[in-house]
Amino acid sequence: MSQTEVSQVKPPLTPLATLIGRELRSEKVEKPIIRYGQAALAKKGEDYFLIKPDCQRIPGNPETSFSVFAIFDGHNGISAAIYTKENLLSNVVSAIPEGASREDWLQALPRALVAGFVKTDIEFQQKGERSGTTVTFVVIDGWTVTVASVGDSRCILDTQGGVVSLLTVDHRLEENEEERQRVKASGGEVGRLNIFGGNEVGPLRCWPGGLCLSRSIGDTDVGEFIVPVPHVKQVKLSDAGGRLVIASDGIWDALSSDAAAKACRGLPAELAAKLVVKEALRTKGLKDDTTCLVVDIIPSVHPVLSSTPHKKNNGLSSLLFGKKSLKTTSKSSKLSAVGAVEELFEEGSAMLAERLGKDFPMNPDSGLYRCAICQVDQPSNEGLSVNSGPFFSPSSKPWEGPFLCANCRRKKDAMEGKRPIKPTLSA
């Protein structure tokens, strides 16, 4: 769908350290309460979801808790969706240095999500199976929400006043001109199905493979120009809280972001998810797997939502749904302002050189360099920087990006069209 639902005005990004500092200085800011609900109707049985509200950055320390919610919309089978559900979180966490402070952990998370998505894709493709999956992966740590996505599942944020913000980007070739150009530049072809007589039908697809998405995990029989590199967005809510609606395209093909948010306002999360699915079914019927997660991030002093919808905002609902949109928060707004949302990070490039940073950490225990994607330690003479062509030579070639092992470098080159695409799997 079009991204025009979101305002084009974009405020300056606020440094994460500034926001964390405000939070630590304010005695009134407490960790929110997380309430969630899930509902689904199956047409093909290829949708999966993940709910983990009790993760811990430091095992055994509840003060380091964070929550993860995700939807995996499989296609051409279920194996990619299942594998990603079971392995993506651990691959993301492994890309963040152990023992990092909360501030460092949150700052490292966007890059770790990129590494985790790519690593999961590499691992799954080694299994030699054909299926693929979209992914919308949400991490909630206190009032900070980080969303990574490939494909056309979506996450929206509803804050006070009924203004809805889109936290993902749809990677459908039909509607994303930038992705069409990237696929073609990487060696793919973009076009519609041809029927007898030369008439073109259906949405734009990339060939070989015929996938209408430009990003996914899996899809081993499609060219590597279908990339697993996610769009990542990180925002910080005010202590007024907000509501996330995370859903597969079975919802978004039937409902706009505003319609989905409106369908469940004033309801507790569990009932809200069911109402969104019901409204999508009423609007368009059950044409695809339809899965919805609703996650409420609520101030601890107001843990319970009204169970009945209200036509007008009451005191409690005004605490949950804010008046300012993500894209129109003014530079002078304060974190404590009701409904204020501050953007910390957003990047959607498919180029790993732009997503993985330029540092190349050495493992202090082994003295080896660690691959930025697969986290495998290797001697420097057996790896490559993300931009350099020859093997790394400390005396002759400066580093131009993070350290990549040879296998992950091959993956990067294939995604960018710098080496031949792998052949199609035989039946």
UniProtKB/TrEMBL annotation:
Pfam families attached to this UniProt entry: PP2C (PF00481)
| Positions of the PPM-type phosphatase domain | 25-297
Q: Which domain of life is it from?
A: Eukaryota
- SMART domains reported for this sequence: PP2C_SIG, PP2Cc
Assigned EC number: 3.1.3.16
PROSITE patterns named in the record? PPM_2
Per UniProt, the enzyme's principal EC class comes to hydrolase
Matching entries from CDD domains are given as:
PP2Cc
Quickly give the catalysed reaction. Answer: O-phospho-L-seryl-[protein] + H2O = L-seryl-[protein] + phosphate; O-phospho-L-threonyl-[protein] + H2O = L-threonyl-[protein] + phosphate
- Carries keyword Manganese? yes
Q: Which cofactor does it need?
A: Mg(2+); Mn(2+)
Which keywords, in A-to-Z order, does the entry hold?
Hydrolase, Magnesium, Manganese, Metal-binding, Protein phosphatase
GO molecular function annotation: metal ion binding; protein serine/threonine phosphatase activity
Stated family: Belongs to the PP2C family.
According to UniProt, the name of this protein is protein-serine/threonine phosphatase
- State the species of origin: Saponaria officinalis (Common soapwort)
Read off the lineage from the record.
Answer: Eukaryota, Viridiplantae, Streptophyta, Embryophyta, Tracheophyta
